[in-house]
Predict the structure.
Amino acid sequence: MRRAVCILLLCLSLLPFATAGRAAEAAALRSVQAGFIQEKHLKILTRPLVSRGSFAFQAPQSLRWEYLVPLHSILIMHDGRVEKAVERDGRFERETGGGIDSMQLILRDLGSWLDGRFADNPMFSVSRRDARTIVLAPRDPGLETVISRIELCLGREPGVMESVTIFEGPDAWTRLTFTGTVVNRDIPAALFRLP
Amino acid sequence: MTARPVLWLAAVLLAASCSMAPRVVPPEIVAATDTATIAPPCASLFPAGRWQFVHSIAFRTAQGQGTALGVVVLSETEIHCALMTVEGLTLFEARAAGEAAPVVSRAIPPFDRSGFAAGLMRDLRLIFRPPPGRAEAGRLADGGPVCRFTAAGTVTDILPQKDGCWTLHAYTGRTGSTTIQARSCRPIASAVIPGRLELSAGEPDGYSLTLQLVGAERLPASD
């Protein structure tokens, strides 16, 4: 499970770079904000399970990852800490417990991803399917049982990512489609605190 | 979802273990009524036919709390379920026909532990299926109606409410008990579907699950 959590956080951590697009643009990246629509596809589902939310990233290592529907939850990575809260019955409750250490491991890689150096991370091999599609494949067969590959679809405009698709298997994948990406706008520090 | 809450989720959904907990006894039915009249309506509180449900699941134990998303697909003969993190990672998927042992198609540790799938299916059957066993009906000491289903080793009481919701108490063996409270029930596709389900398993392995309905869909009759 720890490995699965690491991979999940890896995917989230990739997104600031991903939404910022190519390495040349990412090199000057200070912040990224965007909305997203998450579609979870499973064979068991008659139609995808749709979640909506937004995220904000600020260099070097601050991330707010927030779902608004169907469940309001906020994940914060800031100042070396990782915290999560979920809204229940109208108020936020922190998700207690450990496992945070694995998230911090992922965050340490964030700097290299922001520079577009995907290959620095030994967990995945990196290839380009075409000019706009980057494919990350796990090197470890054990990891492959959890996530078979990740596809990053670059936007037509520099600095914009269209989508990230995380494949778990032939009948299970999650696609994040980004909207309204804003790059290098100042973000209030309060955004990186849980309510 | 962080690793430890997931561990707790796995732990709380495991079958209740044997314990030194005090014996739990079903309350006495003080006034028997026409079982043929009462019991069928009790069974009708549960969705019939093919359905798909999506819930957010909040779980609590003495050690902590966490959240997941759950998908359940019901057919006349089978329960198919999946658990995933809010972020979309599939943690567990399995299906079970009738009372048969579940067939697991995906289980990320610790969801691959022995007993997890069976325990999860047990809770799902309690929530979504009419209880098995011999039916009788009547009233409890407080005057409330009750349907009682008695099967080998298990007594299940259903207390229907006036608003179409219900409370279920399942007594297993000498000490095991589980209570499910259905709330905010509303009609969907000719069935009455709870908007919220609160499951509480007794001590010593006490845990609670709160299932908030995200979506309910009646599916076509054929696969």
